[in-house]
Amino acid sequence: MAPLNKRLRVSLFTAASLAGAVAALPALAAPQILAVASTDLKLPVTCEKGECTVELTTICLQEHRASPNIGAGYYVHGDKFFDLSGRTATGQEISLAHLPLEITAARGHNAVRLAFRDTHLKKYGPLEISLSVPDNLSLVPLPVANDVKPQTEEDILLATGPLREAATRLVDLDVNKRDAAELINQAINRLPWRGRASDTERATVRAAFDDLTEKSGFASGARDNANAVVNECYDRTMAGSLSFRACLGSWHDRLIGTLNTKYWKSLGAGS
Fold first, then answer.
1. d(CA 167, CA 38)
2. Which residues have CB under 8 Å from 77's CB, separation 6+?
3. Dihedrals φ, ψ of 155, to 5°?
4. Edge-to-edge, what's the strand order for the sheet holding 43-44?
5. Which terminal residue of the chain, N or C, has fewer Cβ atoms less than 10 Å from its own Cβ?
6. What does the alpha-carbon distance between residue 65 and residue 146 come to, in Å, rounded to a whole number?
7. Which residues of the chain have pLDDT under 70?
8. What is the mean pLDDT of the chain?
9. Tell me, what's the pLDDT at 162?
10. How many alpha carbons fall within 13 Å on the CB side of residue 70?
11. Residues near 255 by Cβ (< 8 Å), separated by ≥ 6?
């Protein structure tokens, strides 16, 4: 058996090492509250490998807080909610608003992912599922343990009230970017969530996008911007590791990032 003084030195070293490791852990702080962009067009919800998903455009309402990590959980604040519905082969519309939705950050503060298990749909038979976002819907991060800077009631009221209204006004002023981002998001949500789309899937999405753009009712500037992005991403991702969906997501986030910076500057906070 080791002498007592040697065992004591080892114990003290171990305790100091553990204390240092704990101190080195990153402090947890709640990420930004997000504004979800309202939709003029219904978004398609796609089901793949037992999970149904849709990606939504978001804007950060709190410039001083950190962007959410991928997978960070959120919940809808207030009494507004998504309009989730399914259409049967006979054209009957079925409300799916009761389904439990998991809301997580998809790409920083520029997009969130909504998901639910397709087992909830089996009793309805085949459905064409879509989702719409109403005006002024906000997302608050789910509370986490050991949060050193949680979202207080005052933080939430400020972000979802006057700051949310300011974001809505600013985004509505730039119809071109807003509508172009919505059109691009339509294409994003028609592509597989995981991996690369097949040549057939890519061609189908491009054809559907062309038809959707023409029927959208959006101004020519927004349609032209969105078409240019879709065409460039289609050509760039014919080969290589970059997927069609990832390319579209990158361009979508540039558009939304520009709007977000304008919003922060309009509050006098800068970017």
1. 12
2. 33, 138, 139, 140, 156, 160
3. -60, -45
4. 43-44, 128-132, 83-87, 93-95
5. N
6. 17
7. 1-27, 269-271
8. 89
9. 96
10. 3
11. 177, 180, 181, 184
What's the rounded Cα separation, in Å, for the pair 222 and 225?
5
Please give the pLDDT value at position 251. 97
Q: What is the pLDDT of residue 3?
A: 47
How far is residue 55's CA from residue 148's CA, in Å, rounded to a whole number? 29
Q: What is the pTM of this model?
A: 0.86
Six-digit token pair at 216?
Answer: 């959208």
Q: For residue 123, which amino acid is it? A: K
Place of tokens 């559907």: 208
Q: Which two tokens stand for residue 150?
A: 């949680």
Residue 26 pLDDT: 54
Residue with tokens 């992912």: 113
